[in-house]
């Protein structure tokens, strides 16, 4: 979780004045926020409010129109930024798993370390087995991913991302495609990751997770951050009427 004293510590991510549009549709504007090392930031807000686009600007899947995104103090808009290098340090977990269905569980986890990081196969497999153990799936290492449940697939996706030793993990509605009874197994893995000190930005509709696990909650409404702050404050005493209105849908 968040370091108790972050004074003088550099944020993992700093966003200032971010603006993004598609054609003449402005999707994000005046976005400012920081993610400190070890912090868990959840982003909540209605569908279409710009949550996914914001995550995609952090790992350069989208290019902002203006404003800045710094990753460990490096301005991502700078010409010389090596996008591939950067993405290796940012793990991303999507709603739809995005696993390679033609590979088994272990191969899904070792592909990027071996091909992108030039890790030896044996080392990559040993590391993958450690992460598969963490997510409770060691015994499925040789299984085809197509034989797994949605919750298991999402845990493989998390293990696969961890195999790249990311500095930051981005989650875009990781449990939205799952049956309600298996959401918990994925949230539990994410909670463990948070406890171990992983820096995480999580877009979610799981308000209990946002309230209990995050250090900071960001509420987005129609392309702006309407309110951000301490989860207890946001959930028990939101300052903005639109935050209150949004949260009332989850009661
Ligand atoms: P959220 O994740 O909060 O549901 P998104 O970031 O996916 O919101 O989308 C915000 C808005 O941007 C929506 O109106 C969506 O239709 C639009 N949008 C997202 N991606 C694109 C794109 N590639 N081209 C055009 N419009 C897009
Ligand atoms: Mg989205």
What this model shows, in words?
This protein is α/β, with parallel strands linked by helices and 251 residues long. Helices cover 35% and strands 24% of the residues. A 6-stranded mixed β-sheet has the order 6-7-8-3-9-10, with helices on both faces. A 4-stranded antiparallel β-sheet has the order 2-1-4-5, with helices on one face. β1 and β2 form a beta hairpin. The radius of gyration is 18 Å and the shape is globular. The structure holds adenosine-5'-diphosphate (ADP) and magnesium ion (MG). The site of magnesium ion (MG) has 3 residues, from α1.
Give a brief outline of the structure.
This protein is of the alpha/beta class and 251 residues long. The protein has helices spanning 51-58, 83-88, 105-115, 121-134, 150-162, 180-195, 207-213, 231-236, 241-248; strands at 13-22, 25-35, 40-45, 66-71, 74-75, 90-93, 168-172, 200-203, 216-221, 224-229. 35% of the residues lie in helices and 24% in strands.
């Amino acid at each position: 979780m968040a370091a108790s004293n972050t004074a003088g510590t550099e944020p993992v991510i700093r966003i200032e004045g971010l603006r993004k549009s598609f054609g003449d549709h402005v999707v994000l504007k005046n976005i400012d926020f920081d993610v400190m090392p070890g912090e868990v930031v959840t982003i909540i807000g209605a569908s279409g409010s710009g949550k996914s686009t914001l995550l995609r600007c952090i790992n350069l899947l989208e290019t902002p129109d203006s404003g800045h995104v710094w990753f460990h103090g490096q301005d991502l808009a700078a010409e010389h930024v090596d996008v591939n290098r950067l993405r290796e340090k940012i793990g991303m977990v999507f709603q739809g798993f995005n696993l390679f269905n033609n590979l088994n569980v272990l191969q899904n986890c070792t592909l990027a370390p071996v091909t992108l990081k030039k890790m030896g196969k044996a080392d990559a497999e040993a590391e993958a087995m450690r992460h598969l153990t963490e997510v409770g799936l060691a015994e499925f290492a040789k299984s085809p991913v197509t034989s797994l449940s949605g919750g298991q697939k999402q845990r493989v996706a998390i293990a696969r991302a961890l195999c790249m030793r990311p500095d930051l993990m981005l989650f875009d509605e990781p449990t939205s495609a799952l049956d309600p009874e298996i959401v918990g197994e994925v949230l539990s893995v994410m909670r463990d990751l948070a406890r171990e000190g992983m820096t995480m930005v999580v877009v979610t509709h799981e308000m209990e997770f946002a309230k209990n696990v995050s250090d900071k909650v960001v509420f987005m409404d129609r392309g702006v951050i309407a309110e951000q702050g301490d989860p207890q404050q946001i959930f028990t005493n939101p300052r903005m009427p639109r935050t209150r209105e949004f949260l009332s849908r989850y009661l």
